[in-house]
Amino acid sequence: MTQDSKLAQSIDKGNFIITAEYLPRASAVFSLTEDVITALKSFHAVNVADNPYGIVMSSLAGAMGLSQAGIEPIYQLVTRDRNRIALGSDLLGAASLGIKNVLCLSGYHQTLTKCPESANVYDIDSIQLADAVNKMNNDKVLPDGIKIEGDFSMLIGSVANQNLKPLELNMIRLAKKIEAGAKFIQTQAIFDVKVFAEWLEAADKEGLTKKTAILASVMPLEDAQEGEILRDTFTDYNIPDEIIGRIKKAGDKEAQRKEGLKISVEIINEVKKLTGLRGIHILSGGNEAILPELLSQSGLGK
């Protein structure tokens, strides 16, 4: 079935795609400032993170909050916390509420969240989840084979880590995600443009950039300490010493914030020139308030 979300239509038209991220809080209230809502409306669609670091408002509720604010959401779904029964149930629920985009993820291991004692599930991985959603789209059946009543149509997205070596195996994994149905790929945060350029060139040579829309993720660091924590805690953050050193030398916390923002703008300007790139994804890290400033300095927008 053809996907009809605004994001899907923009991808089909060959537009340069701009997406952003919203991290729900540990709150029973959906709340964003008017400035942030206005900024988020400048993007084609906005990811709603699914419990990346611990218990927060559900990604489905957050997606509905964005939708009600006039922002097209990308519903993130991780397999860490759900078996295939719960995944299918949540996907049906999302579809019934008008959600049309889903990002399929495995999710950080629970030991990297604020609830390390919680049990993991990982019944299926992110590639299997994408394949399951693809079958729900095309065959109208749930993972257990039950027929779906009514229309079900979700644009499938996935995430790729450009830092994984060897590059040949990285390309095999990327190809599997595309084969499973991923129509767009958001990378991990880019801090080393050379590494990303080599990865994108390899994907282009394999013909993968013509089969999916690859979006380069950029994350403004708040300060040098944040960069050190991310680099030392999560394997998907490859942050060179020179980046952290440059931010540290900027001065006080506000100066470091501005330097982190400046670096992100520089990275955006560099990667936009690369062959095969279809868009930019902004990882705000929960600091959505920075988006208006980033949009202004980078010139991003529809």
Question: How would you describe this structure to a colleague?
Answer:
The chain has a single domain (6-297), classed as TIM Barrel, CATH 3.20.20. It is 40% helix and 14% strand. It contains eleven helices and eight strands. Strands 1-2-3-4-5-6-7-8 form an eight-stranded parallel barrel, surrounded by five helices. Strand 2 (45-48), helix 3 (59-68) and strand 3 form a beta-alpha-beta unit.
Question: Which helices and strands occur, and which strands form pairs?
Answer:
Blueprint: H1 6-12, E1 17-22, H2 34-40, E2 45-48, H3 59-68, E3 73-78, H4 84-96, E4 101-105, H5 126-138, E5 155-160, H6 167-179, E6 184-189, H7 193-205, E7 213-218, H8 224-233, H9 241-249, H10 253-271, E8 279-282, H11 291-298
Parallel strand pairs: 1-2, 1-8, 2-3, 3-4, 4-5, 5-6, 6-7, 7-8
